[in-house]
Amino acid sequence: MLEDIFISKVRVKILQLFFATPNQIYHVREIVRRVGEEINAVRRELARLEKAGLLTSEWRANRRLYSTRQDYIFWQDLLSVVAKTVGLGGDIVKNRNKIGKIKFSFLSGAFARGIEVGPNDVDLLVVGNIIMPQIAALVKDEEARRGREINYTIMTEEEFNFRKKRRDPFLLGILEKPQIMLIGDEAEMLK
Fold first, then answer.
1. Which of 83, 134, 145, 160 would bridge 89 by S-S if both were Cys, CB 3.0 to 4.6 A apart?
2. Geometric angle at alpha carbon 50, from 48 and 51, rounded to 5°
3. Beta strands in the chain (DSSP E)
4. Euclidean distance between CA atoms 45 and 10, whole angstroms
5. Nearest one of 98, 78, 162, 89 to 125, comparing CA atoms
6. What is the rounded distance in angstroms from the CA atom of residue 92 to the CA atom of residue 128?
């Protein structure tokens, strides 16, 4: 099945577009404009992804619109892969050495899905010895792309372990929600 998904650069660009904004519906011409590829190549890849069951399409006002099928067996896995390669998650993974010594980092599942949450929910948690201006710059860039504020929390490893040991309600509230690990091992983080 993976051969049906990751075979061409056009397909990769389409997957990045759809999973960077998983609740969006796109018209073919908009997809062409956003991925910067030829329309025939885009149409061919859209047909293959729809045949594989990853995308669905519908006609509205003489336009064919495409969206992801969230019941696709690898949907969550693809969301995780794309979250680690584009946007804020990709920036953190690429710049991990410039940011500092990161022990754990994750995005909330709601953030990765593009779901608006409450003002007290945390979109990003980074644990380690972090250079604050570096992470702040990455977050600011993503806020400009998304057009909304991103709530993030930075903790040292000592603070994280102390709060976890004390069963701090704030930290437990973050950890109990679905997340996409960017750096570190989730099992080690939760033990």
1. 83
2. 65
3. 26-27, 55-60, 63-68, 100-108, 124-130, 152-155, 179-183
4. 7
5. 89
6. 13
For 5-95, strand residue ranges (E) read 26-27, 55-60, 63-68
Q: Which residues touch 85 (CB under 8 Å, ≥6 apart)?
A: 16, 93
Q: Determine contact, residues 68/55, Cβ cutoff 8 Å.
A: yes
Least confident of 58-72, 115-129, 131-145: 115-129
* CA–CA gap between residue 126 and residue 153 (Å, rounded): 6
Contacts of 28 (CB under 8 A, 6+ apart): 39, 42, 43, 46, 63, 64, 66
* Contact present, 182 and 89 (Cβ < 8 Å): yes
Residue-wise pLDDT for 58-72, tens only, equals: 999 889 999 999 999
Write down the pLDDT at residue 1.
46
Question: Which amino acid, one-letter code, is at 86?
Answer: V
Q: How many CB atoms lie under 10 A from the CB of residue 5?
A: 17
Torsion sign over Cα 115, 120, 126, 132:
positive
Distance CA 50, CA 58 (A): 11
